[in-house]
C-alpha cells in the first residue's frame, strides 16, 4: 500500500533569485532521506512561489520493507572460555543485539569460527518516520538567512505555516512555534486560507485561491501571454531567460500587461533604457524588426486582469520618473571631461589597505605594459594600453554609473567615444570587467583582454600581499572569479605568457607601493597555487581525469594554453593501446633518474651494449627536435621512444657496481627525464 506525502513550508516573501535553488535543495534532501530510510516511492514533484517551498512524494510506501540483518561477533575462541561458558565479550554482543546468548550461532570464515547472528527486522511504519521531516526543514541552508522573534533558527524568511500530510493524515511536528497541519494560504490579496484534503488536491486547492503552485506552469503562462501581446500589437519582445526566471519567482498568479513611455527617452543610450527597465523595474523591453527599442514595455502583475489600465498607468509613472532621472544624469555627465573624472578617482579608496583607485590604476598600468612586452606588442598597441590603463575607471565617478552600477564600463566606453578616445581604448574600458561570472562572456579585443588580465592579476596579488585571502566559505572580493577570469582569457587568446614571471614582477610592484604585510616569496607561492587551482577547475570542467590534471599542472610550466593542450591530449589518448606501455616506460625513466647526482655529461665511450647507444641517439634526436615540435608531436616522440627505453632496461643494469658506469647511465636517463617532466609528471598518471 502507498499514499502521497505533501510537505509545504509557508514563508514570508523570499528573495526571488534564491527560490529555484531552495526548492531543488528541499527535493534533494527529501529524496536522500527516503533512500536512507529504505522507503519506496515512484517520484517527487516540487512546487514553489514567493511564499512557499513544497514537495510531494508520489506513492510513498506505508512502511519500510521487512529485512534480514546479519551481524558478525567475536571469534569463538574469544566468545567462549575453556569451560564452554559465554565470555563477557559474547554476552555484550548479545546484549547489544537484544537477544539471549543461547540463540547465538557460529559460522566459519577462512578457517576461523565467529559468532554470527541472523535476525528478521520488521520495517517501521512510514507515519512514524515522517516526523523526521522536521530535521530536513530546519537543516536547509540559504545564501541569505535571518533570525526572527526569540527563535534560534536561522532561515531564508520566517516560517508562517507548515503542511505535512501523508494521505489524509497530518504528520505532527513543530518549528518556531508553528505546528504542522493541512491548511495552506492562497494569494496574499486575492485568496484565502484553504484546507488541503489530500496531496493530490494540492495544486487545484491553491489554484482556487489564485496561486499557480507549479513554477513551470507559471512560466509557461507568462510566455503564452507575452506571445499573445506580440501577435495583437505586432511587436517583438525578446525574453531574457534570467529576467523571466526572476519575474516568475516574484508572482503567484501572473498576468502580463504592457505600458508605454515618452519617445524622447529613446535618445538615451539603449543600455540605459534596458538597464532601467530590466534591472530596476523587472520589465521586458519591446523592439522592432531591426531590434531597435520601441517606447513600450512588458510587465507581469501578481494578480488577475482587473483594473489593468490603472496598473499600467502606475507602472508608466514609475518608469517615467526613472528615465527622467537617467536623462538628467546623462546630460550632466556629458559636461564632465575624462581628465576631470580621472582626477576625482584620487579621492576614492579602492580598499583601505590597497590605496585609492588612482594608485591601483598606476599599478595596473605597469603590469599591463609588462604583459604587452611579453606578447611583443607594437609601440602603437602599447600606447593604447597605457592610455586605457590611465583612464579605465573614470566612469565610476559619473552620475549614471553612480545611479546604475550595472552600467560601469558600458558608459565608460560610450563617454570615451563621445570625447574622441580611440575606439580600441574605449572598448577596453568596457571589456576589462569581463568575465563578470565564472562562465561569463570574455573580452574580444586584445587591448581589452590584456587590461582585464592586468587588472585582475593586480587585484589578486594586492589582496594577497595584505593577507586578505579567500577562505573556504568567504571570498568577498571575488578573487576566485578574478583568477578564473585570468586563466580563461589567456586560454581563449592562446597567449604564450610566462605567467609566473609576470606574477613575480607584479608582487614587486605591489611591494614597491608598500603593500608588504606578507613576504614576497610567500605571496608569490600563495598566488601561484591559487591560479593553479583555478586552472585545475577549468580542466576538471572539461572532464579531464584528475591524475592527468595533477601530472600536467605540477610540471612547473606556466604557459596556460600549452598546459591545457597537454592535458587535453593526454586525456584524449588515455584509452589508446599504446598509452599505458608508453606511460609506464616514461615513468620508469623518471623514477630511476631521481638517483642521479651531480653534473655529469653522458660519455658514449662508456656504453657496454647497443641498447645504450640506441637510447642515447634517440635522446640526442629528441633534444635537437624538441624545441620545434608542437605538443602532439612531442607526445608522439615520447611514444616512439618506448621501444628504445624497453630495450635499454632489458639489456642494461643501470645500477652497475662500477660507479663511473652507473653515473653515466643515470646521467642519460636524467637527460631524457628532463624532457619528459617538462611535458608532464608522467609518474603521477594512473595506468593500472
Automatic annotation (TrEMBL):
<comment type="similarity">
    <text>Belongs to the class-II aminoacyl-tRNA synthetase family.</text>
</comment>
<keyword id="KW-0547">Nucleotide-binding</keyword>
<dbReference type="GO" id="GO:0006426">
    <property type="term" value="P:glycyl-tRNA aminoacylation"/>
</dbReference>
<keyword id="KW-0067">ATP-binding</keyword>
<keyword id="KW-0648">Protein biosynthesis</keyword>
<keyword id="KW-0436">Ligase</keyword>
<dbReference type="GO" id="GO:0005524">
    <property type="term" value="F:ATP binding"/>
</dbReference>
<dbReference type="GO" id="GO:0004820">
    <property type="term" value="F:glycine-tRNA ligase activity"/>
</dbReference>
<dbReference type="GO" id="GO:0005829">
    <property type="term" value="C:cytosol"/>
</dbReference>
<protein>
    <recommendedName>
        <fullName>Glycine--tRNA ligase beta subunit</fullName>
        <ecNumber>6.1.1.14</ecNumber>
    </recommendedName>
</protein>
<dbReference type="Pfam" id="PF02092">
    <property type="entry name" value="tRNA_synt_2f"/>
</dbReference>
<keyword id="KW-0963">Cytoplasm</keyword>
<dbReference type="InterPro" id="IPR006194">
    <property type="entry name" value="Gly-tRNA-synth_heterodimer"/>
</dbReference>
<dbReference type="InterPro" id="IPR015944">
    <property type="entry name" value="Gly-tRNA-synth_bsu"/>
</dbReference>
<keyword id="KW-0030">Aminoacyl-tRNA synthetase</keyword>
<comment type="subunit">
    <text>Tetramer of two alpha and two beta subunits.</text>
</comment>
Amino acid at each position: 500500500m502507498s499514499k502521497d506525502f505533501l510537505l509545504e513550508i509557508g514563508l514570508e516573501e523570499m528573495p526571488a533569485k534564491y527560490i529555484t535553488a531552495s526548492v531543488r535543495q528541499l527535493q534533494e534532501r527529501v529524496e536522500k532521506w527516503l533512500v536512507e530510510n529504505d522507503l519506496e516511492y515512484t517520484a517527487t514533484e516540487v512546487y514553489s512561489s514567493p511564499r512557499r517551498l513544497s514537495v510531494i512524494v508520489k506513492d510513498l510506501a506505508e512502511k519500510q520493507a521487512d529485512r534480514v540483518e546479519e551481524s558478525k561477533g567475536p571469534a569463538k575462541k574469544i566468545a567462549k572460555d575453556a569451560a564452554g561458558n559465554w565470555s563477557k565479550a559474547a554476552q555484550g554482543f548479545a546484549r547489544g543485539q537484544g537477544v539471549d546468548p543461547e540463540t547465538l550461532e557460529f559460522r566459519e570464515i577462512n578457517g576461523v569460527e565467529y559468532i554470527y547472528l541472523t535476525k528478521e527486522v520488521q520495517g517501521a511504519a512510514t507515519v512514524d518516520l515522517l516526523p523526521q521531516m522536521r530535521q530536513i526543514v530546519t537543516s536547509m541552508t540559504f545564501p541569505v538567512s535571518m533570525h526572527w522573534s526569540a527563535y534560534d533558527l536561522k532561515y531564508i524568511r520566517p516560517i508562517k505555516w507548515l503542511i505535512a500530510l501523508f494521505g489524509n493524515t497530518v504528520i505532527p511536528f513543530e518549528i518556531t512555534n508553528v505546528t504542522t497541519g493541512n491548511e495552506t494560504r492562497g494569494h496574499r490579496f486575492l485568496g484565502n486560507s484553504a484546507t488541503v484534503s489530500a496531496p493530490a488536491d494540492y495544486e487545484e486547492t491553491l489554484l482556487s485561491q489564485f496561486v499557480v503552485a507549479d513554477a513551470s506552469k507559471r512560466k509557461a503562462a507568462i510566455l503564452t501571454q507575452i506571445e499573445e501581446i506580440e501577435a495583437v500589437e505586432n511587436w517583438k519582445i525578446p525574453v531574457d531567460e534570467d529576467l523571466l526566471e526572476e519575474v516568475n519567482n516574484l508572482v503567484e498568479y501572473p498576468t502580463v500587461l504592457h505600458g508605454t513611455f515618452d519617445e524622447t527617452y529613446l535618445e538615451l543610450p539603449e543600455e540605459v533604457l534596458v538597464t532601467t527597465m530590466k534591472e530596476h523595474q523587472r520589465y521586458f523591453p519591446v523592439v522592432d524588426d531591426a531590434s531597435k527599442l520601441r517606447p513600450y514595455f512588458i510587465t507581469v502583475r501578481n494578480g488577475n486582469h482587473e483594473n489593468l489600465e490603472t496598473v499600467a498607468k502606475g507602472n508608466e509613472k514609475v518608469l517615467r520618473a526613472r528615465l527622467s532621472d537617467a536623462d538628467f544624469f546623462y546630460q550632466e555627465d556629458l559636461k564632465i571631461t575624462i581628465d576631470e573624472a580621472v582626477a576625482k578617482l584620487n579621492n576614492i579608496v579602492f580598499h583601505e589597505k590597497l590605496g585609492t583607485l588612482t594608485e591601483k590604476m598606476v599599478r595596473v598600468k605597469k603590469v599591463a605594459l609588462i604583459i604587452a612586452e611579453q606578447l611583443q606588442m607594437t609601440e602603437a598597441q602599447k600606447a593604447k594600453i597605457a592610455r586605457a590603463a590611465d583612464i579605465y575607471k573614470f566612469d565610476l565617478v559619473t552620475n549614471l554609473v553612480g545611479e546604475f552600477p550595472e552600467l560601469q564600463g558600458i558608459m565608460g566606453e560610450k563617454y570615451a567615444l563621445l570625447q574622441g578616445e580611440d575606439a580600441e581604448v574605449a572598448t577596453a574600458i568596457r571589456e576589462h570587467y569581463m568575465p563578470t561570472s565564472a562562465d561569463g562572456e570574455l573580452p574580444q579585443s586584445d587591448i581589452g583582454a590584456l587590461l582585464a588580465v592586468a587588472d585582475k592579476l593586480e587585484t589578486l596579488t594586492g589582496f594577497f600581499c595584505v593577507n586578505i585571502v579567500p577562505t573556504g566559505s568567504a571570498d568577498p572580493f571575488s578573487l576566485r572569479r578574478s583568477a578564473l577570469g585570468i586563466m580563461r582569457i589567456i586560454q581563449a587568446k592562446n597567449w604564450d605568457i610566462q605567467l609566473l614571471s609576470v606574477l613575480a614582477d607584479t608582487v614587486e610592484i605591489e611591494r614597491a607601493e608598500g603593500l608588504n604585510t606578507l613576504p614576497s616569496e610567500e605571496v608569490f607561492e600563495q598566488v601561484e597555487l591559487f591560479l593553479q587551482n583555478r586552472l585545475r577547475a577549468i580542466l576538471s570542467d572539461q572532464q579531464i581525469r584528475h591524475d592527468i590534471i595533477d601530472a600536467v599542472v605540477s610540471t612547473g610550466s606556466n604557459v596556460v594554453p600549452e598546459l591545457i593542450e597537454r592535458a587535453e591530449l593526454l586525456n584524449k589518448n588515455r584509452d589508446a593501446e599504446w598509452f599505458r606501455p608508453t606511460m609506464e616506460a616514461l615513468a620508469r625513466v623518471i623514477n630511476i633518474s631521481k638517483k642521479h647526482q651531480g653534473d655529469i655529461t653522458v660519455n658514449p665511450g662508456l656504453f657496454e651494449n647497443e641498447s645504450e647507444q640506441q637510447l642515447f641517439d634517440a635522446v640526442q634526436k629528441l633534444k635537437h627536435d624538441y624545441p620545434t615540435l608542437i605538443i602532439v608531436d612531442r607526445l608522439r616522440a615520447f611514444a616512439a621512444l618506448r621501444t628504445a627505453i624497453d630495450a635499454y632496461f632489458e639489456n642494461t643494469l643501470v645500477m652497475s657496481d662500477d660507479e663511473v658506469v652507473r653515473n653515466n647511465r643515470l646521467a642519460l636517463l636524467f637527460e631524457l627525464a628532463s624532457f619528459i617532466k617538462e611535458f608532464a609528471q608522467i609518474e603521477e598518471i594512473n595506468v593500472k
